[in-house]
């Protein structure tokens, strides 16, 4: 009886140890499973958070890229406008700033004006300037008195071409330099040069005017004479080709 009891007790002990071992391993498996599940949840939360952060950063980067694209387009437009403005300014500069012969002429005119030459006189010379022509006809000289007063008389000055051309000079009575202050008047043959009519005049000497008669060009130039109070008129005949 004692032997059977002892065997039963040993059997129960072995069974208890078996279930304790199985329970221990089941507990270990459950704990490990819980740890793994929690790790998975934690990893998922971290991954979701990281994904959300990356999505926000991507949206911000895309917005920044769009703004940079707009700035780039604006800067490109401003660059094109600046280039167009530069081209316009260059064209204006090329049109307004003289070069070559014109620049030399302007420099010479500036020098003459600074030296005291009357601007109206310089303008008249430029307006009357013509291309150089071959003038084979002999020059005719006349010396005449510079009249003083307020108006010319019928016999003042001198004539050319058998009276068809007349030139006279009138200076103020109180003028210190009669030649410089004299008004030189050209008349005859339609004094505008091509039949425009009416007298042509210029202030100061030298003064010049051109008359046209048929195919002849009569160039009349008036300069100050070496004799005080007198002027010299020179008529040169040129053939118009």
β content, as a range?
A: 15-25%
Kindly report the average pLDDT value. Answer: 81
* Individual helix count: 4
Low-confidence stretches: 191-197
Helix content: 40-55%
Sheet/helix structural class: alpha+beta
Total strands: the figure is: 9
Domain count: the total is 3
Tell me the series of helices and strands, N- to C-terminal.
HHHEEEEHEEEEE
Shape designation? rod-shaped
Straight-line N-to-C gap: 168 Å
- Let me know the largest β-sheet: 5 strands, mixed
What is the alpha-carbon Rg in Å? 57 Å
Describe the structure.
The chain is built from four helices and nine strands; from the N terminus they run H-H-H-E-E-E-E-H-E-E-E-E-E. By secondary structure, it is of the alpha+beta class. It folds into three domains: 1-97; 98-129, no CATH class; 134-239, no CATH class. The strands form two sheets. Strands 2, 3, 4, 5 and 6 form a five-stranded mixed β-sheet that branches. The longest helix is centred in the N-terminal third of the chain and has 95 residues, at 2-96.
Short summary of the structure?
By secondary structure, this protein is an alpha+beta fold.
What's the structural blueprint in terms of helices and strands?
Elements: H1 2-96, H2 100-114, H3 119-128, E1 140-145, E2 147-148, E3 158-160, E4 165-171, H4 178-181, E5 183-187, E6 200-203, E7 207-213, E8 216-224, E9 230-239
Parallel strand pairs: 2-4
Antiparallel strand pairs: 1-9, 3-4, 4-5, 5-6, 7-8, 8-9
Features:
241 residues, alpha+beta, 3 domains, five-stranded mixed sheet, 4 helices, rod-shaped
